[in-house]
């Protein structure tokens, strides 16, 4: 059989079966290697402090940069996927992740870790994870929702296993050798990327006619095409830049859609406090006399419970009873997450911290399951990708600055309790802001409907659900999708 015939069979390969399940397995591993990796950094917090004689604030910049880049690199990842395809982007991410951690093992200062493990590994994880999710969308159409739910279990598995492996390797061979081994482990993202061979209409093969924003058209715009005059070329470049910003960062949606505006502001504010327990829980436990291996177990407990609770939360929130009310479920989960922090303030005994981990993992499951579903509810699906771009960039800023600022407060006061006070403040205030704001928007919409005053632009005020599931078996996957997960 000729090579061309084999290629033709691959191109015509049906979705939702066969090789698609290997891609799903690769996606599970990818999510465990990327999103599941960053929480284990808290295990090394105390050792890095002692090694570099760094403060809490200085040390916390390292995981903050990693998480912020992982979340905020979505638009850049989308451009790479559109130009080079999912397979290349996943493998590039694996190379960057491995290179970042190997380089980190030779760092001589904490600031060098910001570049290697923070920026390089964070960016690599972003590319591998988000391009992997996009590839999954091409391989699954009818079973896409199920495939994404199954793939997300990789996050919980990574959340469970990484801290245990980290503590074992740290005890046996120190943090430098551990980071070196981690670099080799993260290179397995390249293997996962190799499995994700192209199928169907991937970004590498845009349609001949071209659509707005297609690879051919974007390349023509970004390269200045071939107008004869420099003024026209400059105008074309400005137009291309504007179109790229409009495609990946939906400022127009933010200005016009009140529901998206409230939700984006609320989640951005929430992220100031959401990551604090993840970064400081292990150091807090060790500071209060908990043995190091038991302190590392706390993060694993959160991940283990997430394996079972997150799918159940997703199924529950998808019930028609909660149609139009998912934003309130999300706000309730954020509120529970904020209130749970007071358990750590009451006591730092290991048994009490286990109770905290159980409750916070339930709240986190709700947040993780609903975060992007609510965004789909408040934004039209044809603008979801660009709306998600602005959403992730803004939340990455607060994810970046939250832990270092709180670490500075701990350095000044020498009191770890301020970590949980600060986290509770941001989470509880964000929950109340989103819940009450959407309640007010809904009430205003009902009053306008009762008075029968026509709206010029209903999407500016109205919180409405956009059904997405019934047509998943007939709609092709979006050309570019970048998604983060919690």
List keywords for this structure.
Growth Hormone, Chain: A; 486 residues; disordered C terminus; mainly alpha; single chain; 2 domains; disordered N terminus
Query: Which percent range describes the beta-strand content?
Result: under 5%
For the record, the CATH class of the largest domain is: Mainly Alpha
Unreliably modeled segments: 1-12, 201-232, 465-475, 479-484
Mean pLDDT, all residues? 79
What's the gyration radius in Å? 23 Å
Distance between the termini: 47 Å
In CATH, the homologous superfamily of the largest domain goes by the name MFS general substrate transporter like domains
Instruction: Write down the overall geometry.
Output: globular
- Compressed to H and E, one letter per element, the order equals HHHHHHHHHHHHHHHHHHHH
**Total DSSP E strands:** 0
Estimated structural class: mainly alpha
Helix content: over 70%
At CATH level 2, the architecture of the largest domain is Up-down Bundle
> How many separate domains make up the residues?
2
CATH topology of the largest domain: Growth Hormone, Chain: A
Major sheet attributes: none
């Amino acid at each position: 059989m000729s090579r061309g015939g084999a290629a033709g069979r691959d191109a015509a390969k049906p979705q939702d079966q066969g090789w698609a399940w290997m891609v799903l397995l690769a996606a599970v591993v990818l999510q465990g290697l990327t999103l599941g990796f960053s929480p284990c950094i808290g295990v090394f917090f105390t050792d890095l402090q002692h090694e570099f004689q760094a403060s809490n604030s200085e040390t916390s910049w390292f995981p903050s940069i990693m998480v912020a880049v992982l979340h905020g690199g979505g638009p850049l990842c989308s451009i790479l996927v559109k130009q080079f395809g999912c397979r290349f982007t996943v493998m590039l991410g694996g190379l960057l992740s491995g290179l970042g951690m190997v380089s980190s093992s030779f760092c001589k200062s904490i600031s060098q870790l910001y570049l290697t493990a923070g920026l390089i590994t964070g960016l690599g994880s972003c590319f591998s994870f988000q391009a992997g999710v996009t590839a999954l969308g091409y391989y699954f159409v009818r079973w896409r929702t199920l495939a994404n739910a199954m793939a997300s279990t990789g996050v919980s598995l990574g959340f469970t296993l990484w801290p245990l492996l980290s503590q074992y390797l740290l005890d046996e061979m120190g943090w430098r050798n551990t980071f070196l081994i981690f670099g080799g482990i993260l290179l397995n993202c390249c293997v996962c990327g190799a499995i994700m061979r192209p199928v169907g209409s991937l970004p590498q093969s845009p349609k001949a006619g071209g659509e707005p924003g297609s690879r051919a058209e974007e390349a023509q715009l970004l390269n200045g095409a071939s107008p004869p005059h420099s003024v026209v070329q400059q105008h074309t470049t400005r137009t291309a830049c504007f179109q790229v910003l409009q495609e990946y960062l939906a400022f127009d949606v933010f200005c016009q859609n009140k529901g998206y505006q409230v939700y984006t502001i609320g989640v951005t504010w929430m992220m100031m406090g959401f990551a604090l327990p993840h970064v400081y829980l292990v150091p807090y436990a060790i500071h209060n006399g908990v043995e190091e291996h038991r302190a590392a177990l706390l993060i694993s407990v959160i991940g283990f419970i997430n394996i079972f609770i997150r799918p159940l939360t997703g199924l529950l929130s998808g019930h028609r009873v909660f149609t139009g009310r998912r934003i309130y479920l999300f706000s309730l989960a954020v509120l529970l997450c904020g209130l749970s922090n007071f358990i750590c303030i009451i006591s730092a005994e290991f048994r009490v911290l286990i109770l905290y981990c159980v409750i916070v993992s339930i709240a986190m499951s709700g947040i993780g399951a609903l975060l992007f579903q609510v965004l789909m509810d408040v934004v039209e699906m044809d603008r979801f990708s660009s709306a998600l771009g602005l959403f992730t960039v803004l939340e990455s800023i607060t994810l970046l600055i939250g832990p270092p600022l709180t670490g500075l407060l701990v350095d000044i006061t020498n009191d770890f309790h301020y970590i949980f006070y600060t986290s509770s403040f941001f989470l509880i205030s964000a929950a109340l802001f989103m819940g009450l704001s959407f309640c007010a928007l809904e009430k205003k919409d009902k009053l306008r409907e009762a008075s029968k005053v026509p709206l010029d632009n209903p999407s500016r005020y109205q919180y409405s659900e956009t059904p997405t599931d019934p047509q998943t078996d007939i709609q092709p996957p979006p050309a570019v999708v970048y998604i983060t997960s919690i």
